[in-house]
């Protein structure tokens, strides 16, 4: 079970407004947590937050430093999670309390009119102190898989308008997404939230970085917290295009952390999933075997193993850029705020609903992340024990040849 301190850190991250290209609140929260713990970090040229090293020079030195001796096959573990969640940007004011918006990323498709939303800008959440906002006149993309545009109707006590309350706010400064009773809350062992995907993954990287820094030990580590994943892995792609990882003189393995739509064989509450692939691609077989063996050791009977093909993730981008990649995912209820699984604050099936994950699954994910930071995992020959077992079996049958 997550201890009180870690749960508080997680909730602080989950409370932050976020949408594609509007991750600044998450960045500020995470930067503060890292700074308080003394963990170094820096920003790449595209605003992705790089954790565990304090500059581009330190990043590149870590990748260029050849390992030797017993550690020569130890890869740098590059943990990747994204800081955004599907949401909208303001386009223009239609009147003082009516805002035209453009949606970015996936979304519910049903029961959209009248759904409650939140609004924020770079500095603060605007839907506070009695001010409320609702979705109106939603239009879907021609392909039909998400919202394209909509209007946001704003109401507040008295006769004042949002423009009077917050003078000078330009439409394009505003962003938002669906709102529920709270940003996050716990019911039993379920954690309900506006955006588990992928702010729980962000938390897992931050928590792992803080622990590794505190211990001052473990394998080489980099955390990559990316922007705009929900519109085609844009932040990750721009980072990979820099070529820093491809120029490494030592082994590298990317570890994609996600929250993915629950599927048969990957259920909420049954443990984190050793993800063998996504909708686009399978992951590195040797490195995935290392992760699978580790899961059998640290989470026996409390993890799952599946190709999670309900969607694609940044592991696809890493694979496309030639980087060995593995994945850990949390089974996610109500993926992209679509009320598939129902639960609290989901009044209509497949309408807007809070996402939910299980606290034990999060705890298991943290255990897997810490386990992956052990030195001496069998990266050089992960299939050795499998070959030995199969060969022993073959020898037993030799008499029948």
Would you mind describing this structure in some detail?
This protein is an alpha+beta fold and 401 residues long. It has 10 helices and 17 strands. It has helices spanning 4-14, 24-37, 56-64, 162-165, 196-215, 234-241, 285-298, 314-320, 359-372, 384-396, and strands at residues 41-43, 49-51, 76-82, 87-95, 98-104, 116-120, 132-140, 147-155, 175-178, 184-187, 190-193, 221-226, 252-261, 273-277, 304-307, 325-332, 355-358. Helix 2 (24-37) runs parallel beside helix 5 (196-215). The termini are far apart.
Strand order, sheet with most strands: 1-2-12-3-13-16-14-15
Shape: globular
Helix-strand sequence: HHEEHEEEEEEHEEEHEHEEHEHEEHH
Percent of residues in β-strands: 25-35%
Per-chain topology:
Blueprint: H1 4-14, H2 24-37, E1 41-43, E2 49-51, H3 56-64, E3 76-82, E4 87-95, E5 98-104, E6 116-120, E7 132-140, E8 147-155, H4 162-165, E9 175-178, E10 184-187, E11 190-193, H5 196-215, E12 221-226, H6 234-241, E13 252-261, E14 273-277, H7 285-298, E15 304-307, H8 314-320, E16 325-332, E17 355-358, H9 359-372, H10 384-396
Parallel strand pairs: 3-12, 3-13, 13-16, 14-15
Antiparallel strand pairs: 1-2, 2-12, 4-5, 4-9, 5-8, 6-7, 6-9, 7-8, 10-11, 11-17, 14-16
Helix pairs in contact: 1-2, 1-5, 2-5, 5-9, 7-9
Features of this protein?
single chain, 401 residues, 25% strand
Q: Short description, anyone?
A:
By secondary structure, this protein is α+β, with helices and mostly antiparallel strands. Helix content is 28%, strand content 25%.
């Amino acid at each position: 079970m997550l201890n009180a301190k870690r749960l508080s850190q997680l909730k602080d991250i989950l409370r932050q407004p976020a949408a594609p290209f509007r991750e600044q609140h998450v960045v500020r929260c995470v930067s503060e947590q890292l700074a308080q713990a003394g963990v170094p970090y820096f920003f790449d040229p595209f605003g992705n937050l790089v954790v565990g090293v304090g500059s581009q020079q330190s990043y590149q030195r870590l990748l260029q430093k050849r390992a030797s001796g017993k550690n020569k096959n130890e890869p740098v573990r590059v943990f990747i999670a994204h800081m955004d969640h599907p949401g909208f940007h303001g386009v223009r004011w239609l009147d003082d309390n009516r805002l035209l918006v453009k949606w970015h990323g996936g979304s519910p498709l049903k029961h959209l009119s009248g759904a409650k939303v939140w609004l924020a800008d770079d500095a603060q959440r605007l839907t506070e102190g009695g001010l409320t906002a609702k979705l109106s006149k939603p239009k879907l993309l021609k392909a039909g898989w998400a919202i394209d545009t909509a209007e946001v109707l704003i109401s507040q006590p008295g006769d004042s308008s949002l423009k009077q309350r917050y003078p000078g706010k330009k439409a394009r400064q505003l962003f938002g997404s669906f709102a529920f009773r709270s940003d996050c809350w716990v019911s039993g062992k379920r954690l309900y939230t506006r955006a588990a995907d992928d702010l729980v993954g962000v938390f897992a990287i931050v928590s792992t970085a803080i622990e590794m820094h505190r211990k001052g030990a473990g394998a080489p580590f980099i955390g990559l917290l990316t922007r705009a994943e929900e519109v085609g892995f844009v932040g990750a792609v721009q980072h990979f295009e820099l070529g820093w990882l491809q120029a490494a003189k030592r082994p590298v393995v990317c570890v994609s952390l996600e929250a993915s739509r629950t599927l048969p064989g990957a259920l909420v509450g049954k443990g984190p999933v050793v993800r063998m692939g996504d909708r686009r691609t399978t992951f590195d077989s040797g490195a995935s075997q290392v992760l699978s063996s580790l899961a059998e050791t640290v989470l026996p009977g409390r993890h799952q193993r599946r190709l999670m093909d309900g969607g694609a993730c940044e592991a696809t981008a890493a694979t496309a850029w030639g980087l060995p990649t593995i994945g850990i995912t949390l089974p996610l209820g109500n993926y992209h705020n679509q009320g598939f699984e129902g639960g609290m604050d989901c009044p209509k099936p497949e309408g807007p609903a809070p996402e939910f994950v299980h606290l034990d699954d999060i705890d298991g994910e943290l255990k897997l992340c810490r386990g992956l930071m052990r030195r001496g995992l069998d990266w050089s020959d992960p299939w050795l024990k499998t070959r030995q077992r199969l060969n022993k079996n073959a020898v037993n049958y030799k008499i029948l040849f």
